[in-house]
């Protein structure tokens, strides 16, 4: 199974009564599941969502087999085109999760942070960019792909063959002085600009969030499996 999207969310200064928190977590998971099921071209997938109480912290993952990815990618013509499309779909699913998570707490006092990572799909796109720039050969990219997917790459011969063929057919593109691409963690990377810092009063340090008390863990092992749910006491 390949981790194709991981979303980490922090909502500072927000707490809920336990029953409300559990309902918030399960509702969030169900809405996220419906979005992934309808907005991505994945025939099957596994979802997991952990939500911790205190200042609210949530971590969601989308996982799929390479066989499912091969089928989904194949719906869009070329391998790279399908890869980019599926990547965009799962990143959109991560953004949806973040937006829904903060919705009940949309006040100016909320501290909201989200890190949305494309994981293995972002890493593959990065390899294609390196081959495109002439900084890596197709053979080297396949070695890196093996590191990304492990033994599952050999267990999905159709995916492996299509990936290898696409890498070999990747045309060299002239490198520009400034370009944007999706990094290995799925975030937008840009050529940094030098910024002159002005001296001033240091920003006050933010107080540490209160200790977590419990965590709601929710998951579906497959698209058609039932929702699993448990609450773990993590209070120190």
Question: Explain this structure to me?
Answer:
The chain is elongated. Helix content is 40%, strand content 22%. It has 236 residues and is of the alpha+beta class. Strand 5 and strand 6 form a beta hairpin. A 6-stranded antiparallel beta sheet has the order 4-1-3-2-7-8.
The rough form would be described as elongated
Give the SSE order as H and E letters: EHEEHHEHHHEEEE
Q: How many domain regions? A: 1
The radius of gyration is 20 Å
Low-confidence stretches: 177-209
Q: What is the oligomeric state here? A: single chain
- Binned, the helix content reads 25-40%
Distance between the termini: 33 Å
Proportion in β-strands: 15-25%
Question: Based on DSSP secondary structure assignment, what is the total number of beta strands?
Answer: 8
């Amino acid at each position: 199974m390949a981790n194709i999207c991981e979303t980490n969310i922090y909502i500072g200064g927000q707490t809920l009564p336990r029953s409300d928190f559990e309902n918030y977590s399960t509702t969030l998971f169900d809405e996220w599941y419906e979005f992934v099921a309808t907005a991505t071209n994945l025939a099957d997938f596994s979802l997991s969502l952990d939500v911790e109480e205190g200042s609210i912290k949530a971590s969601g993952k989308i996982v799929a087999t390479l066989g499912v990815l091969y089928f989904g990618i194949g719906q869009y013509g070329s391998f790279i085109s399908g890869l980019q499309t599926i990547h965009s779909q799962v990143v959109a699913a991560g953004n949806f999760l973040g937006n829904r998570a903060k919705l009940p707490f949309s006040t100016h006092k909320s501290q909201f942070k989200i890190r949305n990572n494309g994981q293995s799909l972002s890493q593959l796109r990065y390899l294609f960019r390196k081959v495109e720039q002439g900084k890596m050969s197709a053979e080297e990219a396949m070695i890196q792909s093996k590191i990304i997917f492990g033994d599952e790459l050999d267990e999905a011969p159709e995916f492996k063959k299509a990936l290898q063929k696409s890498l070999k057919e990747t045309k060299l593109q002239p490198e520009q002085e400034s370009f944007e691409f999706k990094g290995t963690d799925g975030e937008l990377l840009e050529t940094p600009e030098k910024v002159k810092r002005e001296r001033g009063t240091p920003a006050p340090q933010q107080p540490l969030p209160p200790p977590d008390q419990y965590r709601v863990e929710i998951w579906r092992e497959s698209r058609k499996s039932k929702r699993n749910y448990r609450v773990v006491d993590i209070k120190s």
